[in-house]
Write a structure and sequence with these properties.
single chain; 206 residues; alpha+beta; five-stranded mixed β-barrel; 5 strands
């Protein structure tokens, strides 16, 4: 399965970016908010959710791991498919959406294209408990400069890959590595892993 793409943006059509990686062009559907940060003929790195259906293989792209994690959570809701999940992420940023759901403001969700009253209420009911972890994560990564740096930093990506290989959930790995970066700035891959594991260990003893 494809987890990320790094390459040159050849073109953007609607909500689809064509990204060339190693001579192959990949069509990636993305939220409007993510697409707005890409520029044609410039290099880009996107996290990818690869969905395989009987009649197609579709790539969905995101600027951050947190956006992808929210997308994965959304498509588990009854009646919410990938297109609607993209509409959610095109209408709200992660933090705003999480806050809206946790405050049970289903009426505000009706502004999302394709979301009616019943779907908005279903989102609140089914997501309220699952999104509490997202609320904690957005508080930890409140430093936008640190988050931006982390998302594009090779050490950050290598640290996440190493921690997931060790058996940690990707969302938890991102959460603790970002916490380390927010506190101490950019470090080597090894230092990021060691300090992130220390945070996890300390939490387990608290």
């Amino acid at each position: 399965m494809i987890g990320s793409l790094s390459g040159r943006v050849l073109r953007i059509d609607g909500v689809t970016a064509l990204i060339e990686c190693g001579g192959v062009g990949y069509e990636v559907d993305m939220p409007v908010t993510s697409l707005s940060k890409l520029k044609v003929n410039e290099n880009a790195f996107v996290y990818v959710q690869h969905i395989v259906r009987e009649d197609a293989q579709i790539l969905y792209g995101f600027n951050t791991v947190t956006e992808r994690e929210l997308f994965r959570t959304l498509i588990k809701v009854n009646g919410v498919g990938p297109k609607m999940a993209l509409a959610v992420l095109s209408t709200f940023d992660v933090e705003s959406f999480v806050e809206t759901v946790l405050q049970e403001q289903s009426k505000a969700l009706e502004q999302i294209p394709g979301v009616g009253k019943k779907t908005a209420q279903r989102m609140v009911v089914e997501l309220k408990d699952n999104l509490k972890n997202f609320a904690v994560s957005t508080q930890i990564s409140a430093n936008p400069q640190a988050t931006s740096t982390a998302s594009s930093n090779e050490s950050f990506n290598d640290a996440i890959a190493a921690m997931t290989a060790l058996g940690y959930k990707e969302f938890d790995a991102v959460r603790y590595v970002k916490a380390v970066i927010a506190k101490e700035g950019n470090l080597s891959t090894q230092d990021l892993i060691v300090k992130a594991l220390a945070l996890i260990s300390n939490k387990g003893r608290s």
